[in-house]
């Protein structure tokens, strides 16, 4: 076991090569340990571990310093250069809406229950659609020991006014005024928009930063906060940034963390170490060998890992293993001839082989697709009318797709492609960024499905920047793109992303929602009503009305579901991971996903 | 054909009067032919194979078994069927690109080599500039800018980026042919430039052209694989490169799905190895000096020549020193052949 001790020393060293060599040695030992490890269910008695691999296995634990450290991956892919949370691409854990290890948010979103849990704010109250009141926790301190006050909160959001290019600026679209009184903060929701959901979503996502530090930064940069560069990040969280170099980011436990009582103690790991890998494969291999404890990288066929005796686990024991949190959307440019026709769009929705996509492209990680813009599982499930979605919605049925086209007056030409009045259905290009492999594969299946029913389509995968511009400018035929993932503002935000006619951008101009330029007279009123709904019944009715319109007009349709974050753990060193049976915390890193780090248990000595 | 002043014995004794014995194809020609034929047959077999390459027969990376020789790929398609379709696509791209590249290269090489002067300077200047740019970069740039990537567009793009070395080599040969007497004869007889190029120059460098074509085909197949692995392959079509692309994208190596990436890799290796070997052995066919049959065969041929010569000498009943002459002429020739064969 001396290997591990030496490997740990090297790990704190600086060379990548040394790290890889040492971790290779550690991997060998861990693999052996995993084979002869304790079994979660079998050993019985007080020794029984919960929250272990899906095969019931657990490892024996690492020895030495590494036994108390948590190895995490999937959030940082390049050498960390800038820890300014407002920069274009800040390094983990300063990047926006990631695990709350250094910075924290006022409220924390739970992707399983859909609840907003207290964070820096001990409680929040919503008064209809007019205002939100937050009360801060007691005794919060910054890492340097100074007191955390309402000034810090106000200033964080104020930055959106100081520099309007920052993401936080969009907060002020929905909010008129934010004031503090003692430890209470009152937020006046914009009277015209009345969109409480969007305000809560921002409160649950925006890291609160120290006013003292950022005031200085604003002065230094002439209020161009995004251009400020820093190697430090001081927050309120349970960890401090200890070291960051090209191979890893190391966080050290903040022994004076304010939340000791609130979370029932300090986090279990003394350090959180994020090694930086060049590719998914590197990380996946290390994860399989137990050199990483938890990560959010895409692993095809993760079940093979526990089938081969590794103590690897996921929140759900059975397929789809992950809790659905986002909805890759099939966007349709409704300004193009042919695609203008809702019947064509409906036929398309019937033509796609969703089961194939879920099974192969998504590696089985997607539940069955429902004809709705509301996620059928998890946080949003209370809002969906599943019976209606089933009755009025679509499913994979190529015959029906052809029937719809024939009924709408389309006829197959000699080339096997449907056409009407000289408007041929295709050839259309299906675009999505190169390297987004599951989406690439999904579109390949869509292209084949379309060709099979007589719609001409072929895939094309340019670079991400090019796809982003094409989609925003409406310069595309068909595309796979993302819309809002589960958050306190969804499903409303997703309806807005897909259907909103507010500030509808012309072709060639940058749009931020409704990329397909679908036009409709009713939708804005319906969206407004849903956003301003005062109680749950009204809200559900309004959302169902939107969903009905969505099913009738098919401005876009979901191809599959994806977890918001992949949550995969290897119980080689730590147990008591959150699972469906051990559901004290949601399977996520951001938001309420910070809870499990206080509760995981070291297996070995 | 013999020189008028050669002794009669030479003509009769020459083993090259027998065409079958003289072609003397080496083992590596046959190996190359078998390899290339195997790959071509594999490509053709897709037409009779029961499952299509787009048919979903299983799940993500089903291992071999259940009647599937190489299991399924990441789409759940039969790997064997995809491999057949992929081989066919790769061969088509290779052939088309090879034809395009060889045509451009030979045309530019012929004209600049034969015509010479400023035209040669101009054409070779362009060729050298194109040669100096790494073709893979040009290939990637053109492929990215194409609105739609099909196997035909890809083949043509590969073809128009890989002609320069052929042009240079053909120019060198053409300018050498241009100084020969029969060209003057052709000129005097009133032939025009295209006719001279096609009838009097091209035939002399045809053997080289065929070999260059074979190399171009193999190069194009590899170029297609490289492009497709980067994700710039033909959309909606299977090729060996796209097969590798998806295997990489779905981490076949990490998840141990060897059946998804080994078959296309092996076929690619066989294709390029087979074509290179074919090119090398064709070289021997066209250039007798490079021929290297078995040493024993060459020795036998030498011995046969010697024996023939002796028999002839004996039948003539001439004096000893006269009889040595033909033998002395034949043996060194054979000896040179052996030497070269041994060295090459």
Automatic annotation (TrEMBL), chain A:
Family matches, as Gene3D superfamilies: Dipeptide-binding Protein, Domain 1 (3.90.76.10), Dipeptide-binding Protein, Domain 3 (3.10.105.10), Periplasmic binding protein-like II (3.40.190.10)
Top-rank lineage group of the source organism: Bacteria
Solute-binding protein family domain: residues covered: 116-491
InterPro entries per the UniProt record, alphabetical: SBP_5 (IPR039424), SBP_5_dom (IPR000914), TAT_signal (IPR006311)
Name the record gives this protein: ABC transporter substrate-binding protein
Organism of derivation: Brachybacterium halotolerans
TrEMBL record, chain B:
Keyword Chaperone tagged: no
Compositionally biased spans, kind Low complexity: 304-316
ABC transmembrane type-1 domain location: 87-279
Signal peptide coordinates: none
InterPro entries according to UniProt: BP-dependent_transpt_permease (IPR050366), MetI-like (IPR000515), MetI-like_sf (IPR035906)
Region of interest called Disordered, as start-end residue ranges on this chain: 304-344
PROSITE patterns with a match to the protein in the record: ABC_TM1 (PS50928)
CDD domains: TM_PBP2 (cd06261)
Cellular location(s): Cell membrane
Membrane topology, record value: Multi-pass membrane protein
Keyword Nucleus: no
Lineage top rank: taxon: Bacteria
Entry keywords, A to Z: Cell membrane, Membrane, Transmembrane, Transmembrane helix, Transport
Listed transmembrane segments: 29-49, 91-116, 122-142, 149-166, 205-232, 267-286
Similarity section: Belongs to the binding-protein-dependent transport system permease family.
Name of the featured protein: ABC transporter permease
């Amino acid at each position: 076991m001396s290997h591990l001790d030496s490997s740990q020393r090297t790990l704190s060293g600086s060379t990548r090569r040394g790290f890889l060599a040492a971790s290779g040695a550690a991997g060998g030992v861990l693999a052996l340990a995993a084979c002869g490890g304790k079994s979660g269910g079998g050993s019985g008695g007080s020794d029984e571990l919960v929250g272990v691999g899906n095969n019931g296995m657990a490892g024996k634990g690492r020895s030495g310093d590494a036994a108390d450290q948590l190895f995490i991956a999937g959030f940082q892919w390049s050498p960390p250069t800038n820890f300014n949370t407002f920069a274009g691409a800040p390094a983990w854990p300063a990047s926006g809406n990631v695990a709350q290890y250094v910075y924290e948010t006022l409220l924390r979103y739970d992707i399983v229950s859909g609840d907003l849990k207290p964070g820096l704010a001990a409680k929040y109250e919503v008064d209809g659609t007019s205002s939100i009141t937050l009360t801060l926790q007691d005794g919060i301190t910054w890492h340097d020991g100074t007191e955390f006050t309402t000034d810090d909160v106000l200033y964080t959001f104020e930055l959106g006014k100081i520099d309007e290019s920052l993401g936080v600026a969009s907060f002020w679209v929905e909010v008129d005024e934010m004031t503090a009184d003692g430890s209470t903060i009152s937020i006046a929701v914009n009277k015209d928009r009345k969109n409480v959901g969007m305000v809560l979503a921002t409160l649950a996502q925006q890291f609160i930063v120290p006013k003292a530090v950022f005031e200085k930064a604003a002065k230094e940069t002439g209020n161009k906060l995004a251009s400020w560069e820093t190697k430090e990040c001081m927050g309120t969280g349970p960890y401090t940034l200890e070291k960051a170099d090209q191979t890893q980011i190391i966080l050290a436990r903040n022994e004076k963390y304010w939340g000791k009582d609130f979370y029932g103690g300090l986090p279990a790991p003394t350090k959180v170490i994020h090694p930086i890998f060049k590719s998914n494969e590197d990380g996946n291999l290390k994860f399989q060998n137990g050199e990483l404890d938890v990560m959010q990288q895409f692993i095809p066929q993760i079940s093979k890992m526990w089938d081969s005796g590794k103590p690897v686990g996921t929140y759900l024991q059975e397929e789809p293993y992950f809790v659905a949190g986002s909805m890759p959307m099939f966007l349709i440019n409704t300004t193009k001839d042919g695609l203008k026709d809702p019947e064509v769009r409906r036929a398309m929705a019937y033509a796609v082989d969703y089961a194939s996509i879920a099974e192969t492209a998504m590696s089985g990680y997607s539940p069955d697709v429902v004809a709705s813009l509301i996620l059928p599982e998890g946080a949003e499930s209370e809002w969906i009318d599943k019976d209606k979605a089933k009755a009025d919605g679509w499913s994979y049925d190529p015959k029906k797709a052809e029937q719809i086209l024939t009924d709408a007056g389309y006829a197959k030409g000699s080339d096997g492609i449907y056409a009407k009045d000289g408007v041929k259905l295709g050839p259309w290009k299906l675009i999505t960024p190169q390297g987004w492999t599951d989406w690439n594969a999904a579109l390949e299946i869509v292209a084949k499905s379309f060709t099979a029913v007589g719609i001409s389509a072929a895939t094309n995968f340019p670079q991400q920047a090019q796809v982003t511009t094409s989609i925003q400018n409406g310069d595309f035929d068909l595309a796979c793109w993302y819309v809002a993932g589960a958050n306190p503002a969804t499903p409303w935000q997703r309806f807005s992303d897909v259907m909103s006619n507010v500030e509808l951008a012309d072709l060639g101009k940058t749009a931020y929602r409704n990329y397909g330029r679908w036009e409709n007279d009713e939708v804005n009123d319906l969206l407004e009503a849903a956003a301003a709904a005062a109680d749950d019944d009204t809200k559900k009715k309004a959302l169902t009305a939107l969903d009905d319109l969505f099913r009738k007009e098919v401005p876009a349709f979901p191809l599959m579901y994806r977890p918001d974050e992949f949550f995969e753990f290897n119980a080689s060193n730590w147990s008591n991971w959150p699972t469906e049976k051990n559901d004290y915390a949601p399977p996520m890193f951001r938001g309420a996903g910070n809870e499990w780090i206080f509760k995981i248990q070291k297996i070995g000595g | 054909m013999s020189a008028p002043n050669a002794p009669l014995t030479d003509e009769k004794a020459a083993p090259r009067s027998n065409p079958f014995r003289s072609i003397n194809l080496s083992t590596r020609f046959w190996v190359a032919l078998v390899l290339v034929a195997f790959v071509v047959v594999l490509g053709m077999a897709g037409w009779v194979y029961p499952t299509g390459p787009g048919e979903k027969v299983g799940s993500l990376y089903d291992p071999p078994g259940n009647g599937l020789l190489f299991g399924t790929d990441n789409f759940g398609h039969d790997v064997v069927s995809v491999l057949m379709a992929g081989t066919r696509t790769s061969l088509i791209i290779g052939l088309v690109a090879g034809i395009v590249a060889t045509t451009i290269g030979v045309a530019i090489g012929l004209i600049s080599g034969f015509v010479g002067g400023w035209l040669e300077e101009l054409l070779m200047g362009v060729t050298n500039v194109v040669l100096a740019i790494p073709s893979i970069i040009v290939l990637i740039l053109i492929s990215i800018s194409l609105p739609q990537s099909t196997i035909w567009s890809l083949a043509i793009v590969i073809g128009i980026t890989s002609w320069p070395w052929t042009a240079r080599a053909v120019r060198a040969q053409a300018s050498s042919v241009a100084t020969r007497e029969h060209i003057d004869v052709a000129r005097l007889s009133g032939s025009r430039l295209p006719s001279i190029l096609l009838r009097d120059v091209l035939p002399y460098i045809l053997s080289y052209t065929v070999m260059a074509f074979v190399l171009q085909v193999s190069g194009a197949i590899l170029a297609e694989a490289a492009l497709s692995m980067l994700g710039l392959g033909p959309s909606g079509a299977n090729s060996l490169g796209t097969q590798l692309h998806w295997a990489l994208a779905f981490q076949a190596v990490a998840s141990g799905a060897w059946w998804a990436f080994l078959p296309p890799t092996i076929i690619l290796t066989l294709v390029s190895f087979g074509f290179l070997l074919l090119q090398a052995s064709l070289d021997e066919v066209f250039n007798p000096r490079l021929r290297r049959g078995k040493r024993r065969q060459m020795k036998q041929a030498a011995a046969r020549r010697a024996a023939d010569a002796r028999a002839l000498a004996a039948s003539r009943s001439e004096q000893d020193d006269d009889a040595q002459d033909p033998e002395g002429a034949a043996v060194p020739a054979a000896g040179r052949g052996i030497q070269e064969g041994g060295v090459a």
